[in-house]
Design a protein that fits this description.
This protein is mainly alpha-helical and about 150 residues long. It has one domain. It is built from 4 helices and no strands. The longest helix has about 40 residues. The chain is elongated.
Length: about 150
């Protein structure tokens, strides 16, 4: 596998997350009462998850072997989780802080601390999920290539 797909995958994953975060921030900013899960937000999350899954599957498909696929997926996921989680945190910080201030009196460090935990969890979850999905993409591509012609 060339090293080109991994940086492209990181950029795509960060962009997908940023688009989701902007839409979420807008929904949170416009909410009047307690935040509710709306169908538009649910569909956006599902589309983002599907797009991210495709990115990892393609990354695995382009890998030379299973080990390379897992490594590429995990490293891409960790980097995308770190960068993308940080971008998302900056995008949603204002609306989340306003929402929390509406319902609770918390110290000034609370929202940034919660968002830092979010970034850390994004990094870990993206690394684990990315490795697993890239491995799956590698396995699916290998299975498709090993079938005899009909």
């Amino acid at each position: 596998m060339t090293r080109t797909p991994a940086p492209i995958a990181v950029v795509l994953l960060v962009a997908i997350g940023a688009i989701e975060a902007r839409a979420s921030a807008q929904q949170l900013a416009e909410s009047v009462g307690p935040p509710r899960l709306e169908s538009a937000g649910l569909m956006l999350t599902a589309a983002g998850l599907l797009a991210s899954t495709v990115v990892y599957l393609v990354l695995g498909h382009l890998a030379q072997d299973d080990r390379t696929a897992v490594r590429a997926g995990a490293l891409t996921g960790a980097l995308a989780g770190l960068i993308g989680g940080t971008v998302r945190a900056f995008i949603i910080e204002g609306p989340v802080a306003d929402l929390v201030a509406r319902y609770a009196a918390v110290p000034d460090w609370f929202v940034p601390g919660a968002l830092a935990v979010f970034v850390a969890l994004s990094c870990v979850a993206s690394a684990v999920g990315g490795g697993a999905l890239a491995w799956t993409g590698r396995r699916l591509s290998r299975a498709a290539r090993s079938r005899p012609p009909a």
